[in-house]
Amino acid sequence: MGAACARALATAGARVVIVDLDGAGAADVAARIGATVVAGDVGDVAFCDGAVAEAVSRHGHVDILVNAAGTIVRADALATSEADWHRQFRVNVDGTFFMSRAAVRDMRPRRAGVIVNFGSIWGGVGGTGHTAYCAAKGAVHQLTRAMALDHARDGIRVNAIAPGEVDTPMLRRGGRAVPLTDAELSELADRSIPTGRLAQPEEIAAVVVFLASDAASYMTGAIVPVDAGYTAR
Q1: Distances (CA, A) of 17 to 35, 67, 124
Q2: CA geometry: angle at 131 spanning 130 and 135, to 5°?
Q3: Topology of 62-232 in CATH?
Q4: Can you list the positions of beta strands (E) in the chain?
Q5: Alpha-carbon radius of gyration of the chain
Q6: What is the distance between the alpha carbons of residues 42 and 91, in angstroms, rounded to a whole number?
Q7: Per-domain residue ranges for the chain?
Q8: What tens digit of pLDDT does each residue of 87-114 get?
Q9: pLDDT in tens, 189-212
Q10: Annotated catalytic sites, by residue?
């Protein structure tokens, strides 16, 4: 989904800097859209400060921050190790906070900027066997609301997108001993999604581009579900 967002924002005219732990994967996406890459771990506060500083150095300022980095542990509380628990929060919550704080430092003096966080349907409703992930994404939703209120008069909008089930590598294999097959994905969609199909990353990215655009100028503090009706139940 992060790659799809990078492509969609570049198509919309943004000058994109991709921040990713997977430097080689990021470079492959960047080469196709004329973007640049800063490789590293968003769970490291010093790296986040440096990544935003690098973007400012290259382009003069940061208009849009999309916090798409994420990881998942598929386990209930008893099966969740301390290391897994801390990693869920380090990547999903700390990374979102550290990157956002660094971006706000650049945005606030100019009284302009947009942050779009990646929450989840499981940030608002529970999911069986995903204790740490649900807790972390719930924290992202609350961080979004709190920062939106803190910076509403600074000209900075902060919203979150809450995707449902999306056909991504994390869904297929993240936290699984054996990746899901196409048939298993189809069965998952038919069983759990009102429309009966998975989203494609580009469908999520389209909503991110909307939230980042002036068309969403009156939106801040919103958690926007893109879930084919999953949370309507």
Answers
A1: 6, 12, 30
A2: 115
A3: Rossmann fold (3.40.50)
A4: 17-20, 36-39, 64-67, 113-118, 156-163, 223-226
A5: 17
A6: 6
A7: 62-232
A8: 999 999 999 999 999 999 999 999 999 9
A9: 888 899 999 999 999 999 999 999
A10: 133
